[in-house]
Amino acid sequence: MFQFKLVLLGDSSVGKSSIVHRFVKDSFDDFRESTIGAAFLSQTIKIRDTSSDSTEDTVIKFEIWDTAGQERYKSLAPMYYRNANAALVVYDITQQDSLSKAQNWVNELKNKVGDEDLIICLLGNKLDLCDSSDNGDKRAVMTDEAKVYAEEQDLLFYEVSAKTGQGVKDVFQSIGEKLYQIKKEEMLSKKGRQAASAKDSVNVKLQRPSTNDPTSCCY
Amino acid sequence: MSTKLLFCKAKTFIHPTKQAGDNVSGFLIITSKDDLSKQESVLTWIPESGLNRKQANFLNAADVRFGGSEGNLGSSKMDSSILIEAVGMPWSFSITLRCLYSLEFRQPSPNGWWHGSIILHSRSPEEDDTMPVLFFHDDICPSSKERTKRLNKSFTPFSDSGEIYWGGIDFRNAIRKLVDLQKTHVEPTMWLVNATLDDLRNFSPQQLEKKVNLSRDELDKSKSSWWDRLESAKWGVMSAIADATSKTGTFVGGLVKQHPLVKLAERNSDNPYVRKMLENPRVQEVQDDFDSARVYLAKWALGVKQQADMYQKNHEIDSFYRKLLITELNFDSKSDVQFTEEELSTALERKFPVTQQKWESFFDSQGRLSLTVNEVKDFIFHGGVQDFDTRKEVWLFLLNVYPWDSSADERIQLTSLKDSYENDYKNKWLTRVEHEDPFEEEYWRDQLCRIEKDVRRNDRDLPLYQFNTVDGRCPDPQGNLPETDENGDEHCMELKNPHLLALRNILVCYNLYNPDLGYVQGMADLLSPIYYIVRDEALSFWCFVNFMDRMERNFLRDQSGIRDQMIALTELCQLLLPNLSEHLNKCDSSNLFFCFRMLLVWFKREFEFNEVCSIWEIFLTDFYSSQFQLFFMLAILQKNSQPVIQNLNQFDQVLEYFNGLHGTMDWNDLMTRSELLFIRFRKVMNVMDKKKELNEEIPNSTGTQSSGIELHELDENGNEELVQLPSTSTYLRSLLSKNIVIQREGPRTKNSIR
């Protein structure tokens, strides 16, 4: 089993916790309390490896860190996103402002983490408020606008609804597949160099080594 | 000013001599004056012979009325002339309830050998001698007969407390509605009135062992100042036999056990119905005197034994817990810093909650505190507040809206606070005009939006905040949850619930009150319990303002306030939990960042709402330290140190572990540990100070020899610098202070708006 660390970032009440709960518990609460500090959840998914001969699915486990959104707590975020393999940067498609906050997060991740293997996914939430024609469309961020930005920045991009569940599983599935792909390539190249040592790759923890001083970014 | 009759019992006797013919019959009544507190109610005994026919009829009717009212006593107006005349009557006496020290309730014997009686003890010794023992002649008292009849009809000859009914129980139920009445563990017949914590601690089971051998003799001596010596002697002999029987199963015990009824009782000892039947006085009445005495003894023995077993069981758990705490918190028996028995007992006995009666007993007739603030805080710290209505008032004091030295009248005058809230803040907000600076305007709108978003999702599982309706009630009486509105999104709905609106209003007004800070996530969490308890928008606002004085440091933009607390906690941890501290170092977690949420909103997310209220009111007393939350946090660390040391070795794991503690912790246990950790900390600091002084006095002396005082667990690790730490650390020193730490947000600039 592979294990990956994933972190959610984004402005307050764009639906970070709701997305995680939809994915992990397949539930939705209209009044989920605000996140203070961060919340931790984990969930496993199965990946079908089409290129390999094996018919068995590979199981990967996500360790998900869901963070507080308000900017006042921004200085704490590095504690959570350090060592992350993937980041979900969430905005609310009914709030134009939340996209620019998301873009700030993307910049910060690129500058501070600076890891090419870090997968960043831009995620527009609250799709349920936009699709139904009879209730009036509340959309404030056009799909194309976000999509163009995501392509420029080389991000994964999805629009989802934590409330209806639309698209949520797909996001984690595709992130999982991508992480698995990266991992496999890493292992293959390692195999190329050291043919013998790759056998023990099962149950490897994929977290990056911790830095020595976790407070460096906080205080 | 009219006099109200709150309680009346006819056929209460005093027995001036051994001769039944000399017995004097009278009425035991409790009266109150309209405008005085319950504590000022007066207990009076009036001889029947001194009353005229009209007066006697009135009281007899009252007795019957109370007897028929299922113990729900109510009150009725009374001609105060009865009380005035009573003063001159022979044998009569009266005492204000707040002057009572204790009451003894001595049950009647089921076979009628003797009547039930009460002995009143006054706070002033002189008065004590003037109050005779009162005997309840239930066999001729109309109200007692009526109650007995009713209870027997329903096959429950017991009062609510599980005792066999007798007239004294009516009296006890009446008086405990007026004053705080606590049963003592040492002497089950003895009840304390408005007991101080010292009294309660002295009468607690921990003290029982020392006193149990003495108490009977002492009490017998002290109460025999009247001619009820004979009664007392009988009572003493019976209880002594019962004790002996239960303990040793001697000859009398063997005799008793042969009795058929006892055998029946033993065979059916699990059957509560049979037990109740056997305890019914009527069942026992059918036996002849000798037999009934044996049954009575057997029952008594059984009861005493049960109580003894129960005590032993509790005591064993207690002493087990004691030993556990000593080993876990004292760490090392070689340590010079040990807990005294008294400190342990004080921390362990968190069992005397502040009831409404208790709270009222703290105040004099003007509604001014008659105890010191520290005594009151001791009560709150060690017992908590029991009921909701009392808690509201206590919190108004704890949050400094009511000054501790105010009178009831002065507190009523505080309505000016309400005006100030309405005029200075709420109106200012409602009549606010758009700011000319678009940047400021955007900021303001953003603040409103953030507040509303957080209020909307605040504690919505509590009934008070649950339904977004104008009256806050469930819109569908069938209990179905309301469908989302026509827009299909709860988050777009207008706020309607009056309590949610109040939370929003208070937070918006606080934004005007403290414009530099702004709204920060977590502040809604801090307001919610306050409003829940106070239930008044304006008063809650001022409570919140005062609360934020100490909590503002948690929300500063540069996080310096929360950082200071984490540093203090880190040093505390190094000092008191060195093993854990060392391990956290290895896990990259020595900054204790994982405590962030718990410290930020004072454990609100880790405990149930009611538990949070109990924890906060203890913190708010500042009884030991204004930063007691850090000792509570330390107790959580201490409690979890074994699993953490054994199983976790990475930053993320530690964070995950402490994030997942929600709903798994016993706050009472943690509070006991917190208190002991604080006491230990204070002692360590004292030792450090002494050591420092010694070193200064003898400049040449170095190291261990001169100090004479060693902290073994520190020295064994060879960490000399740790020893240096406490006396120099301002963080640690600040923990000894009871004054709250105030750290304010700096002026807001355009770069720091959110």
From TrEMBL, chain A:
Main location: membrane
UniProt GO MF annotations: GTP binding; GTPase activity
Cellular compartments per GO CC: endosome; plasma membrane
Record Gene3D superfamilies: P-loop containing nucleotide triphosphate hydrolases
Renumbered residue ranges of the record's region Disordered: 199-219
Compositional bias of kind Polar residues: 208-219
Keywords tagged on the record: Cell membrane, GTP-binding, Lipoprotein, Membrane, Nucleotide-binding, Prenylation, Protein transport, Transport
NCBIfam families named in the record: small_GTP
Protein name, UniProt field: GTP-binding protein YPT52
Species for this entry: Zygotorulaspora mrakii
Automatic annotation (TrEMBL), chain B:
Signal peptide: none
One Gene Ontology MF term: GTPase activator activity
Source organism, top-level taxon: Eukaryota
SMART domains, sorted: TBC
Record keywords, A-Z: GTPase activation
Domain Rab-GAP TBC: 385-623
Pfam families assigned: RabGAP-TBC (PF00566)
Organism expressing this protein natively: Zygotorulaspora mrakii (Zygosaccharomyces mrakii)
Name this protein carries in UniProt: Rab-GAP TBC domain-containing protein
